[in-house]
Amino acid sequence: MASRRDDLVETALRLFYTSGFNATGIDKILAEAGVAKMTLYKHFRSKEELILAVLNRRDEQFRNWLMGEMEKASSDPRERLLAMFDALESWFRGQAFKGLGFNGCAFINASSEFGDPQHPAHRTAAEHKQRIVDYLERLCREAGAADPHELAERLALLKEGAIVTAHVRGMPEAARTAKGIAAELISAKTAPASVPSA
Amino acid sequence: MASRRDDLVETALRLFYTSGFNATGIDKILAEAGVAKMTLYKHFRSKEELILAVLNRRDEQFRNWLMGEMEKASSDPRERLLAMFDALESWFRGQAFKGLGFNGCAFINASSEFGDPQHPAHRTAAEHKQRIVDYLERLCREAGAADPHELAERLALLKEGAIVTAHVRGMPEAARTAKGIAAELISAKTAPASVPSA
DNA sequence: GCATATACAGACAGGTCTGTCTATTTGCAA
DNA sequence: TTGCAAATAGACAGACCTGTCTGTATATGC
């Protein structure tokens, strides 16, 4: 069964996210998951491999959640882009992931702990961020942006700024600060959705 | 002499910043600083106290550097605000602090490793960020912003976004992305410096 | 019922960590 | 020169870490 493996990854995600990667020992994960040590080392060659599995799971979980929130908010790409910041705010307030309070972005945290850009965890974090920019760029293109790449980079930067501000300073309202800027950017740099009378 | 204490804090800053707080052991700091263990524990009660001393030193060092760069760039508050992003870019490219490459923001890193908002290191990080916002707000007021508080929060958020993007994705050019947004905000939300003909 | 794969508990090795201790040496000042 | 303060080296305790190992139990397929 892959269920033991999933239990491990799920528990490790929670503990790593809550207490950090280096500060969380293997034994604690095993105890909370109710899994024997040899089972872990059958599925993963090392703690580092477990960390990478956790980051990959988080990448999937987080992007599914974020895209879902954006897509259920509206079918207009401009409104979808703006809805990202509403989703962020509910995350900052602990309303997004069941059982996981807000402790910043797991990928920013990973890049902090594994500062070497060549470290696999740092690279995985960079890939996650790039995937989100790619998604934003698609939406910017749909929204008729003159320079979808530039606008996507700008919106992504606002997202990172909001996450860090919310986490370091304990200010979930940073999402609204970012949304205000984003709204001005989007209305200045994109054409509105085509309307019948146009 | 306070010189031993300074050696410790300086060396600890470099190692903590390069390799992380939890991942850097006391013994490594002592070996590189050439200081005996008992000397450390005479000046600091624990590793945590050393970490706090390091963060306080970094706060002073970083803000002095940043304000210095901004103030030497221009005497116009609007241009000073924009100059922040040029300073950030030189930091991202490793040209700001002698002997310290760019490894993200020490305070964001501290908040990542010490995720609990009540942790002294996390609180110190929040204070550092607040001091920078306060400085930006003064400049925004000088620049004639209608809402200096809001504009300062926006510029600070852009700064955090640039730092994270530069670090996680290895993109020092994020400073220019942020500067582009900031330029539009500043010119839209402030009055230009008074000119003789006005 | 039996075989095989999987997971279990728990000991263990070898290393690292923080913080304490002792005993010695250095440097400065009177 | 003598005395004192401060720093030194290095051992040590106790805890924790990762990763390996042994032997036992459980569960599923034939």
Query: What structural class do the secondary elements of chain A suggest?
Result: mainly alpha
For the secondary structure, the number of strands of chain A is 0
Number of alpha- plus pi-helical segments of chain A: 9
Please state the overall shape of chain A, judged from the principal axes of the Cα atoms.
elongated
Compute the average pLDDT of chain A: 95
Major β-sheet of chain A, in short? Answer: none
Radius of gyration of chain A: 19 Å
Protein architecture, described:
2 copies of one chain form a homodimer. Chain A is an all-alpha fold. The first copy, chain A, has 9 helices and no strands. Chain A has helices at residues 3-19, 26-33, 37-43, 47-73, 77-92, 106-113, 120-142, 148-168, 174-189. In chain A, helix 1 (3-19) crosses helix 4 and helix 4 (47-73) crosses helix 5. The longest helix of chain A is centred in the first third of the chain and has 27 residues, at 47-73. The mean pLDDT of chain A is 95. At the A-B interface, helix 6, helix 7, helix 8 and helix 9 of A face helix 6, helix 7, helix 8 and helix 9 of B. The structure holds a DNA duplex (30 and 30 nucleotides).
